[in-house]
Amino acid sequence: AGAVRVSLSSPAGPPARCVCLGLGRFSACPTARHQLAFLLLLLEELRVPPAQCALFDPAFSAREAAVLAALGLRLLPENEEGKHSVEGSATLFYMVHCGKALYNNLLWSNWSPAALSKLIIIGNSFRGIEERLPSRILERDYSYIAKVLKATEELALPSHPHYLDTFNDTSVHWFPLDKLQELSPEVWNFVEEPTYQDCEDLEIIR
To answer: What's the number of domains the chain is made of?
Structure first.
């Protein structure tokens, strides 16, 4: 919660709503259960009503969907492939251990300084993605991640010995408006929808 609170010092303020993607089968997977528990604690800490938190994972069973509804959470009706707009209000996207294409699609669907400045992402470290992926692959397949790196603030979640596999390589990311406005106009002029012809990392995209 402390790591997330740092990101809330931005002018966007605390999130009014939350979107959780790729949580996984929490009825069978302890890691997914821990991630769901942390999400519920975050909503409480940030005072986001459960009804303002929407989730999607094609792996959810009918019983899991019923559990989420009983917790007061909402299910998105369809697979948006990560293309979800902040719709003008500060939004927390909880996307732990999702595929790179999902983050890339999310950035594309909010590709303006005004929208990105209202975006908070808890997910795989963008710095880690940059370090592990050859730059030509990053720029070819995940161009929106590549273009926003210079305007990204990132804070790693603190490691915990009991949850090493649950939140490893996980950071809070936010995009300060002043940093976004320093990017060149060419960055914002290119808004072509991403395609992933030669890409294998397409978790819940297709």
So the answer is: 1
